[in-house]
Amino acid sequence: MAGESAAQNRQSSSGAYNAPNDYAELGDITQQPIQRETPGETTKTTAQSARQAERYDSGTYDVPQDSSNLDETESIPPLQELSPCPTQGQPRGHANFVRSDTAVEPEPIAQEAAQKKTSELLTSLYTHSYLVLFAILGVLARLGLTALTRYSGTPVIFNTIWANFSGSVVMGFLAEDRKLFRNEWGTPTYDEVIKRAKQKQKDEANGSGSSQQMDVDLDAAKRAHLATKKTIPLYIGLATGFCGSFTTFSSFIKDVFLALSNELKTPGWSESPTSRNGGYSFMAMLAVIITTVSLSLSGLFLGAHLAIGLERVTPSIPFSLSRRVLDPLGVLLGWGCWLGAVLLAIFPPHNAWRGQALFALVFGPLGCLLRFYLSLYLNGKMKTFPLGTFTANVFGTVILGMSWDLAHVPVGGVIGCQVLEGMEDGFCGCLTTISTWVAELSTLRRRSAWIYGTASVVTALVLMIAVMGGLRWSDGYSKLLCTSTTTLASLADDNKFLDGLIRDIEVAVNALGRSTTIH
Questions:
Q1: Alpha-carbon distance 272 to 262, whole Å?
Q2: CB contact at 8 A, 14 and 56
């Protein structure tokens, strides 16, 4: 079965990005399709598809086979059709998908597209550039949304829930959407199969055609379409880079520990929480876990429903635009923005910017790239336990706990505190991910999902208690130097500048007065 899947991936990518062989194990699509209502358009002929591929293609990508290990590109489980009427003759809950293990080869890509390939090195450059760019954008989105949702009287005091929910919504949309990357490698193969299926459905209503063949065609076509999206660098950047960096598993576990240790402070209240019974702390810990997991899973399915509901108005990205314009622009913006963040961290316009965002932007892409490679090489080891995502989440949680401890002891100075905050928000925030984690939970079988989810939370929390618990229950946490001292230091620097400017003005005025008196 694995050999057939790899062969199908190789056949599908014959006209695509020239990627390394390692991408084949990035989590093959095993979920069922969603049958959607599509306009009753006639199917384009093979000659038209060939001409369209020739028109769109400007050189296809050589994509690594191991890209299938990226669980950010997994399919969302079957969703009920957003239709007022169920399919005739089937129960409402199962009217819109059919479980079928029979694979049907999709229509081969035109030979014109297969003749042109982007080199493996160039494809890797595009992929890494998108990861860097969208990691920076994901960090900015997470920090911005966290700041917006930190206010007095908030109903949920751990405000990372907003970033985790929003990132999961985007992940669900990308996984279920078939319009953004409709053109795939220049030929809208999946879209044409859906049109043929619609025509077959009409023929069946007239007494001809095979409904079973229609379902099998859609199943195989969706698998091929999802496998194709895994080879598009822009899609990898959006799913792995943006969604993975927008959400954070390490901050989620940190909030769980703070709730357990009664250190989870309410925004707007400067004093520490009042002491409470250990049973209440246990309930607070469960509240953080249940709220985060349930809302993140809900966001994932909400995004999938949005992709179906907005299908008619969702635009498609032309392959020629992606290949000729967006890919080179991604290289320029990705590495340029990262270099700009490094330069701003060295020469900041304001000292407080380092701790607020700059160091997080510097360290964020490193965490994203590390997670990418962990998923690439470890997720394929165990099909029922995504080892790469598990390793990234647990390792990132430990690093965040160490950074938190070092930042909350009165040593290291302001710059050291800002670097540690950048490690927490940037490196650990991008290394760990909730969106991929809940996507994996939704696609695994029930038993495997419970084992994987429980092992992830329990292992990370136990290690977090071991790292952060010693300082919490011994000396306690000190105030961050980069939140109180930074402001004072900045004001002192500003006062020194103003004092020097005033002295220079006084000297100039005195000199002007003396020269006037002499004349």
A1: 9
A2: no
What is the CA 153 to chain-centroid distance, rounded? 29
Chain segment 74-130, per-residue pLDDT in tens:
656 545 444 333 333 333 333 333 333 333 344 444 444 444 556 788 889 999 999
Q: Is 161 helix (H, G, I), strand (E, B) or coil?
A: helix
Q: Is 39 helix (H, G, I), strand (E, B) or coil?
A: coil
> How far apart, in whole angstroms, are the C-alpha atoms of residue 72 and residue 229?
11
The CA distance from 422 to 416, in Å, is 10
Rounded Cα gap, residues 35 and 37, in angstroms: 7
Spell 315-324 as b/e; 16+ CB within 10 A means b: eebbbeebbe
Confidence label for 270 from pLDDT (cuts 50, 70 and 90): low
Distance CA 339, CA 336 (A): 5
Q: Looking at the chain, how many residues does it have? A: 519
Print burial letters for 161-190: b (CB count within 10 Å at least 16), e (below 16): bbbbbbbbbbbbbbbbbbbbbbbbbbbbbb
Instruction: Read off the pLDDT of residues 366-377 as tens digits, 9 standing for 90 and up.
Output: 999 999 999 999
User: With contact defined as beta carbons under 8 Å apart, do 287 and 319 qualify?
Assistant: no
Backbone angles phi, psi at 365, to 5 degrees: -60, -30
Answer whether residue 54 shows pLDDT above 50: no
Q: d(Cα 243, Cα 150) in Å, to the nearest integer?
A: 21
Place of tokens 């249940």: 290
Q: Could you tell me which residues come within 8 angstroms of residue 227 by beta carbon, excluding any fewer than 6 positions away?
A: 8, 9, 12, 28, 29, 68
Three-state DSSP state, 267: coil
**What CA–CA distance (Å, rounded) separates 232 from 248?**
24
Among 124, 307, 314, 318, smallest CA distance to 222 is for: 307
Residue 468 CA neighbour count, 13 Å, CB half: 29
Pick the range with the lowest mean pLDDT from 12-26, 262-276, 284-298, 362-376.
Answer: 12-26
Stated pTM of the model = 0.74
- CA proximity to 146, closest of 72, 252, 239, 238: 252
In sequence order, what E strands does 216-337 have? Answer: none
Pair of tokens at residue 446: 């029930």
* pLDDT at residue 182, rounded to an integer: 75
Instruction: Name which of 169-178, 265-274, 295-304, 489-498 the model is least confident about.
Output: 489-498
DSSP, collapsed to helix, strand or coil, labels residue 435 as helix
Euclidean distance between CA atoms 429 and 180, whole angstroms: 27
- On whether the CB atoms of residues 323 and 186 are closer than 8 A, the answer is no
> What is the CA 453 to chain-centroid distance, rounded?
18
